[in-house]
Structure formats: C-alpha cells, structure tokens
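Running co-folding for flavin-adenine dinucleotide.
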Amino acid sequence: MKVAVVGGSLGGLTAALLLRDLGIGVDVYERSPMVLAQRGAGIGFLPESQRYLVERAGVGLDTISVATSRLRYLTRDGAFAYDGAHQYRFSSWTTIYRELLGRMPSGIYHLDHEMTDWEESSDGVNVRFANGKAQRVDLLVCADGVASTARARLLPGVKPQYAGYVCWRGMVPEAALDETTQALFSDAITYYIHANSQVLIYPIPGPDGSVKRGERLLNLVWYRNYLEGGDLDDLMTDNGGQRREISLPPGAASERHIADMRATAMARLPTPMAKVVLAVDQLFLQVIYDIDIDRMAFGRICLIGDAAFVARPHAAAGTAKAAADAWSLAQALTDERDAVTALKKWEPGQLAVGRQLLERTRRMGRRSQFDCNWTPGDPQLLFGLHGPGR
Ligand SMILES: Cc1cc2nc3c(=O)[nH]c(=O)nc-3n(C[C@H](O)[C@H](O)[C@H](O)COP(=O)(O)OP(=O)(O)OC[C@H]3O[C@@H](n4cnc5c(N)ncnc54)[C@H](O)[C@@H]3O)c2cc1C
C-alpha cells in the first residue's frame, strides 16, 4: 500500500510514523517551503500526544515536557482564590515537532508540496501539487489543518463558526522575570477569571527544548471577546493593512491593539500576570472557531486532526485528537488492509471523539466568555480528550 499524508505538522507526522511502522510506504507533503517554525507555542501535553514518542521512540517524558503539580486561580490582588494539587504536563509545539520529525526516515518528508487537487478512482488517488508534481497512492490522509483545502472540497457546506472570542498568546523566558514571579508560576497552571475573559499561564520547555527551571518559557493564553463585524475586522487587520482570517502571527498585530492589551493587563490583571503580559516580546493571536463535520472518510481519502473537527482549546486536546485519529487509523489498517474498508470501519469512532470534544469545549467556552460561571476548581473544567481529566 502507498499512502500520501498531506500536512506535515503534528497530526500528519504522527500518522506517517505509525503507518511507516506498519510497513506501509508513506510520504508526507507539506506546503511550507521551510521546516516549520514555532507556531503553536505551549501545548497541554495529554497522553495521546505523548504516546508515539514514549511507546515507539522510548523518549523520556521529563526530557520533552514540564510537569506541574498545582492548579491555581488568582484573585485580582494576587492572592489564591483556589490552590489545589493537580498534575499536568506541558510541552511546546516546536519540541514535539522536532522530536517527531527527527524520527522520520530521510527522503519521505517533502517540503514545498502544496496539494492543490486530486482525482479519485476505484483503484487509487492521483494527488497533484502546486509545484507541478503528482503522486498516485492507495490512500490519501489529509492532515492539512484548520483551513484544510481537502475539507473545503469534500465538505463545501462546512464553514468555520466564530466563537465570539480570540486567544491572545505569548511566551516569556522565565529568566526575564523577577524571582517571586518566576516562583509563582513555575510549578502550576495559573488562571485568572474576570468578566467575560480568562487568562492562563503555564511553564513550557525553552526555545532550545530545555526543561530546566530558569531556562524555560512561561506560556500566556488570554481569551478576549470581540464582536463579529467591525470589532473583529479591526483587530484582524494587521499592521500592513491586510485582513487576516485565522491568526495574527508574532509581529503582525497592530500597535494599537498591543497597546490595548498592555493597558488592560495593567488595569485589570493581578500584578504577576500583568508582568508576564508586559514582558512578552511579540503577542500573537488565534481566532477561536468551531468546525463541525459529519464525515471523515470519503472512499480512499480521510480527514484527520484539525482538518476534520476544530474544537476550542479549553480542553487542551487539539494535538491529542490529531494523534488519536492517527493511532486509530493505524489500527484500522492493521485489521484491514483494503483502504476503503478500513476507512469505513475507522470513521464512526473518530466522529464520536471529535463531536464530544467539540460539544464539551463549546460548553466550556460559553462558561468562560459569556455566562461567567467558570468556577475555580470545578473538575468539569479539567483538560482531557475523552472527558474532563481523561
Ligand atoms: C489557542 C490555541 C491553543 C491550543 N492549545 C493546545 C493545547 O494545549 N494542546 C493541544 O493538544 N492542542 C492545542 N491546540 C490545538 C493544536 O494546535 C491543533 O489542534 C493541532 O496543531 C492540529 O494539528 P494538525 O496536524 O491537525 O494541523 P496543523 O498543526 O494546523 O497543521 C496543518 C499542516 O498542513 C499544512 N498544509 C495546509 N494546507 C496544505 C496543503 N494544501 N498542502 C500541503 N500542506 C498543507 C500546513 O502548512 C500545516 O503544517 C491549540 C490551538 C489553539 C488555537
């Protein structure tokens, strides 16, 4: 069997490595002309995201992630509204990407290959790329992310639904902060909830992957509401005047909005959190969308990860869902080598996983941003792919 995986981020890499482990001939096609740079910043590192590196590559979790032992909520004056024991692991998109990419055999990860089109017939799929090349395969796995071209063609009626808020993000070297602030955030996920908004901070590996205290980064996540229309258009118009749809990368947000974030941080956040916001060199943001689908398998083609469902980040499970899609696909192809039959058997389980995550994270987002009843310490609010805390 020959497989093309389109999209060379965490979902695509996990799928390709697992299929290769089954002895299947697999190639990964990534549109970016360069090895991908840091984008997703910190990630809650759930068991599904850890699984390939731990089970198949023998990587020690403590070398690629930071373990925290407290779950905390601050009050406006910096006291603890809640301080409970809870263990999480955090890593960074870059660390996991580097580790997975390092396990790919050479010659099968192809940069500068943007899939533009395909034709499917009863015995294969002919995939075409913007660089003029083409590849005939038995199975096409589309892991091409939130703005998936494959989803747009296979499910033209499915449109991203704006959740009513965005997620501002940033990272700060621990060493850039005073010792008291570093100590506060070093072993915890720390939240601050205020009217229609939520801020969270957690430690992640440093830019070079170091997990040593003092060499790590603090990862900032700040959900803020912007009305659809004028407010959102204004926010998403970058400092070059271009209206962006999904994200503003570091350096793209307008000075006015950055100044507003800093002023709001000083006026509204507990002092240690405001210090983190002010220390971020380049804030960036992602618009929060829901994408709901009712199919993931289409003959010899399937959608995985963010190319399938996109759920809000409140369960920290996007990467985990992409990995779980890949693991179950590998299992389906172990049980059944005919691609069409395997995909038919694979689809219902992953539709169920995606749908429950989407519904749960919608409820969580509503509690945080609109109903304002996100209760410190509520176990329903724990991270997890299959449910709170699991
Ligand atoms: C604010 C925020 C916080 C998050 N926090 C977490 C967290 O804590 N934990 C967690 O697990 N997840 C988190 N996520 C989700 C996570 O980032 C995504 O779910 C995950 O990256 C999805 O991986 P993917 O491989 O499916 O898609 P992506 O990472 O989006 O990758 C898609 C790839 O496909 C490529 N591509 C696109 N089109 C084409 C084409 N036509 N041809 C070839 N290549 C193409 C792109 O260049 C890209 O490399 C968060 C997301 C957001 C927005």
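Result summary
The chain has a mean pLDDT of 97.
The radius of gyration is 21 Å.
Job closed.
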